[in-house]
Write a structure and sequence with these properties.
The structure is a single chain. The protein is α/β, with parallel strands linked by helices and 436 residues long. It has three domains: 148 residues, 3-Layer(bba) Sandwich (FAD/NAD(P)-binding domain), CATH 3.50.50; 162 residues, Polyamine Oxidase, Chain A, domain 2 (Alpha-Beta Complex), CATH 3.90.660; 83 residues, no CATH class. The chain contains 15 helices and 21 strands. A seven-stranded mixed sheet has the order 9-8-17-18-19-16-20. A hairpin with a 4-residue loop joins strand 8 and strand 9. The protein is globular. Bound molecules: flavin-adenine dinucleotide (FAD). Flavin-adenine dinucleotide (FAD) binds next to helix 1, strand 16, strand 20 and helix 15. Flavin-adenine dinucleotide binds next to helix 1, strand 16, strand 20 and helix 15.
């Protein structure tokens, strides 16, 4: 017989990734009784850290873009979540243009020095930044950025698309909707901290959210896969695990559309999720290496423009991720749909190795541990063409909320998870303050 875990005036959160953890922590801190249910033995979802031979490999997320405007920063201020920010050093970021490397134009001084643009186009690029910041440039609904930027000189268009490749982790930056592109860069160009890393890695953020949930009376249930929901007309009344049934006043689902389709399969609402399940995810090849010694290099970030591969020296920013004196680097190759379908991951791995050879000669002899993933999902729904992100609430479902990097919010990647989760907790707080 199933045991019924009845909790009063409370919230059940399904999924313990960044979206689930952050919404659960905020609501627990605000006095709700929270149960967080995660199917894996560890919390964190795609933000977990994998320890291997003394190295801590981040499975997924490594950087935060525009941290001063980020929701994680808002959690820091509002909830007292402590994050050890490690801001990226613009002086150590370069583009590899095949026959030479040149500074990435991440500051005005570096825009002046870079060879990716000639003098005339540097002025034009600067002017375009001002137009983006002042919303003079907003794009057009229905027009992809690749087409929208055709009015620009080739060098400027190319640089904008190169930037978008890095920030959207995309091999098809041309396909990004132009309004989304300008909305994103308006925010990013106005930041003082375009890229930051986290001391102690993402595991430290996961651990702090977990601690906050527990300290505020919340309960965390691991190794429990939610298999179905029970509906009372328009309202989710319970979710079912293997042995237990969880009831609550509100439910937040922080699990991807494919999991939602199966959860709601026996209800009249499964069609709500099918559209989002059809959209394609953004997937990349990841190749991280842990070395026993540091290889001296002028770069902490190098982007091979032709191959659309970047390498970040994670251990330069987060010294806790290696044994003493070691080095941990992350390489990512962006993939498009066709490459994924043709299973070109293996080929990409050889190319990544050649980029390591070029910029970090001798790495093979110093290798202690490596982690390769031929198909890592960076974002569950990629923001290209007419693919739409899922709403955080549906009109036909009462007291059910949704968050994750497949949901509507600000930014991209983990910022979508955090911002959709923040919006969901705001709605619950507002609603309960109004006595519903
Ligand atoms: C290689 C790589 C690099 C990345 N780099 C960056 C970066 O530099 N910057 C950045 O901002 N982001 C980056 N990301 C993206 C970032 O990791 C994700 O956006 C974020 O971690 C997603 O969190 P989430 O909570 O939305 O989803 P998830 O992490 O997918 O969480 C969903 C959780 O739900 C659980 N679950 C699923 N089904 C059930 C069920 N039925 N019952 C119970 N639990 C269930 C899963 O186990 C999982 O823990 C990267 C990702 C990858 C893979």
């Amino acid at each position: 017989m199933r045991s019924v875990l009845k909790v009063s005036e409370n919230v059940v959160v399904v999924g313990g990734g960044l979206a689930g953890l952050s919404s659960a922590a905020r609501l627990a801190k605000k006095g709700f009784r929270v149960q967080l249910i995660e199917k894996a033995p560890k919390l964190g979802g795609r933000a977990i850290t994998i320890p291997l031979k003394g190295f801590n490999f981040n499975f997924g997320a490594h950087a935060i873009y525009g941290r001063d405007h980020s929701v994680l920063r808002r959690y820091e201020n509002e909830l007292g979540l402590s994050v050890e920010w490690k801001d990226f050093s613009p002086k150590k970021a370069f583009y590899d243009l095949g026959s030479f490397t040149t500074p990435m134009p991440s500051t005005l001084e570096r825009l002046f020095r870079t060879k990716i643009l000639d003098a005339e186009n540097k002025l034009r690029f600067g002017y375009e930044i001002i137009k983006t910041l002042t919303s003079l440039e907003r794009g057009e609904e229905g027009v992809r950025i690749g087409d929208y930027l055709k009015k620009e000189p080739d060098q400027v268009r190319d640089l904008f698309l190169t930037l978008a490749s890095s920030n959207f982790f995309s091999n098809e930056p041309e396909e990004i909707p132009s309004p989304l592109f300008f909305q994103y860069y308006k925010r990013l160009f106005s930041t003082h901290t375009p890229v930051s890393y986290i001391g102690g890695g993402w595991q430290s953020v996961v651990n702090r959210f977990e601690k906050m949930i527990k300290e505020n009376g919340g309960e965390i249930i691991n190794k429990e896969k939610i298999r179905k929901v029970e509906m009372d007309e328009r309202r989710v009344s319970a979710v079912y695990g293997k042995e237990s049934v969880y009831t609550a006043d509100r439910f937040i689902f922080c699990i991807p559309p494919k999991a939602l389709v199966s959860l709601f399969a026996d209800t009249p609402y499964h069609h709500l999720f099918e559209e989002y399940n059809r959209y394609s995810p953004n997937q990349v090849v990841v190749y991280d290496v842990g070395l026993k010694e540091r290889i001296p290099s002028p770069y902490t970030y190098i982007y091979h423009k032709g191959e659309r591969i970047f390498i970040t020296d994670i251990s330069y920013y987060d010294t806790t991720c290696t044994p003493e004196g070691g080095q941990l680097m992350q390489a990512i190759a962006y993939m498009n749909e066709e490459e994924m379908e043709q299973d070109r991951g293996k080929e990409k791995i050889a190319t990544i190795e050649s980029v390591y050879d070029k910029h970090y000669p001798g790495w093979r002899d110093l290798l202690v541990a490596k982690r390769i993933s031929k198909k890592a999902t960076v974002q569950e729904i990629k923001c290209v063409e007419d693919q739409r992100l899922m709403p955080v609430q549906f009109y036909s479902l009462d007291h059910a909320y949704f968050a994750g990097d497949w949901c509507q919010g600000e930014g991209q990647l983990s910022e979508l998870s955090f911002s959709s989760a923040y919006e969901v907790s705001r709605r619950i707080l507002d609603d309960s303050n109004q006595g519903h």
